[in-house]
Each structure stands twice: as C-alpha cells, then as structure tokens.
C-alpha cells in the first residue's frame, strides 16, 4: 500500500527532480498526480518509465490525497498550499513563504527529523533554502560534538537556483561571447553572468545584506540552534548546477581537524572527499545528480581559538530542494502518516 502524492509545479526544474527522486528512492506511491499552471497545462513529464500529463492546479481537488510536494513560486503557493492543507493533504513546500512561520516546521531530516511532527498545526511542512540545507547537514554532527558559536560562510551558487531562464541566460551569454553580433545582454541577472561572478542573490535588505544571506542565518537558527551566530556572503557564479560554500566555523570547544573528518565521514547524508593533493576535493560538476552533501578541504583555522574551515558542495536541485522534500515525505510516512 502506498501514498496518494501530488507534485505541484511538475514542469519546473525542481518539480521534475521531485519526480525523478520519488522514482529513484522507490517512494511507496499508490497514485500520483502532476499539476502545473494553466500556461504549462497538458505538458507531459516523465515518472520512471511512465509519462504523465499535467493537470490544472487551479481546478484540482486535493481531498483524499495524502501528500503534496509544492515547487511553485510564493504567489501560487500562497493561493494553493492553504487550499490543499485545508482539504486534508499535507503540504511539503519548497517556497520561502512558510519557513519562518512558528506553526510550520522547517525540516532537514538529517538534522531535525522529529520536527516533522509539528505539521499538524497547519498541515504544512517547509523545505529550507538550498544553501541552508546543505550547510546544516555538515554543521549538525560538528555542533553535536563541539557546539558551534559562530559561522562565516561565503557561497558560490549555481544559476539553476534562479530557474530555467537563468540557465538559458548563462548558456546563451557564454555562446554569444564568441559570435560577433550575438552578444546577450543581462536580463535575468543585473550583471553579465557568463565568465563573471555576481555578489547579489535575492533582494537587498535594510542592513545592506541580501535576503539569501538573511535566509541562511534565520533558517540555520530555526533548524539547528538559535544560539548560533552566522554571517553570509552569497554569490552567483557561472555554474549550471551545484552550490558550493566556503564555511568557517568557531566552536566552543577545540575540535581537531582529523576528528572533524572522522565525524563527518560517519554523518548521515555526508560524503567526505578530502585528499590534500590536486583534485582531492569535490567541485560542483561532480556533485550533479548525487544525493550527498560533499565535504572537502577540512582544516584548522589557527587565527581563532577553536576554528575550522571546510568546503561544502551539493546538488542544489536535489539536497537543496527536491531530495530534501522527498526525504521529508519519507519521514512523515515513518513517523505519522503510516500506511500498510
Ligand atoms: C538561489 N537559493 O540559489 C536560491 C534558490 O528561497 O527557496 C532558492 C530560493 C528559496 O537562487
């Protein structure tokens, strides 16, 4: 016996990955529906060896469906997630809309799986921002051992975090650089992304930070520990898929780099690749399509008392979005919505 699952936003990058991952992880499904906005209506999407036709989100009745994985923008989420939830379907939402709602759990299963049980207040569970999800998977086992005081993180985020138009912009701008007359002006991003880096993700906040940087701070506190101080600089780089992060951590207790490496080797969801030689680390290209959060370059930071540096890379469409959502569905099934 399985679950009746709805994927909302099934034609987008994250929605398609959700379908791939439901299939790859053999999530127990009795029935599946794929929904899209009217604009993409009738588009076909693959699910394992089946082809599914999208149905109209606006007209869909969620009554009798168990779980809805939402991968649409905040506007559509605002309209349809409460509708699905009120019709008795548990929403796992990938947008930022509900993440900081005190009545909605924000979950990364390797870190705070039990928080899933808080879904009953609104029938909604939030999926964190991609850059937060991969980072807290790495921080959690180290925090358990030596208590993190402060994190300084710089991100190198791929264009797939923005969406399909951004992927096209990077591709076309890159090609256009070599063909006179076919140069492509920036449109998705405020500056050229091909062969460049842009220190700006999401909107600017009053304090001069960006919302992406703010999300990393507040989401880490909600998922892992409110006492952790975190400062971030989030940067867009000309990479299609895979977010990278240089993370500097200050602990309350001393943590030796070799012990940190051993702890991370044992940690759920983590893969350590850390040889001190050329190529002995992971880059975004190798992480695409993988489930793991990869950690490399683990080393002491001798400029502070209890400091460590590391490099963290993961597929932002997977651990940062679709995989984490499916893992939440798995935990929900094990802890609450038991079937069979
Ligand atoms: C990016 N992290 O790479 C963003 C995408 O709050 O879910 C995800 C935005 C979010 O642009």
Automatic annotation (TrEMBL):
* Residues involved in phosphate binding: 99
Q: Which residues bind NADP(+)?
A: 11-14, 39-40, 160-161, 316
Q: Known SMART domains for this protein?
A: Semialdhyde_dh
Task: Please list the residue ranges annotated as the Semialdehyde dehydrogenase NAD-binding domain.
Answer: 4-119
Pathway it works in: Amino-acid biosynthesis; L-threonine biosynthesis; L-threonine from L-aspartate: step 2/5; Amino-acid biosynthesis; L-lysine biosynthesis via DAP pathway; (S)-tetrahydrodipicolinate from L-aspartate: step 2/4; Amino-acid biosynthesis; L-methionine biosynthesis via de novo pathway; L-homoserine from L-aspartate: step 2/3
Which biological process annotations from GO are given for this protein?
A: 'de novo' L-methionine biosynthetic process; diaminopimelate biosynthetic process; isoleucine biosynthetic process; lysine biosynthetic process via diaminopimelate; threonine biosynthetic process
User: Which NCBIfam families does the entry mention?
Assistant: asd_B, PRK14874.1
This protein's name = Aspartate-semialdehyde dehydrogenase
Species of provenance: Limimaricola soesokkakensis
Q: What gene is behind this protein?
A: asd2
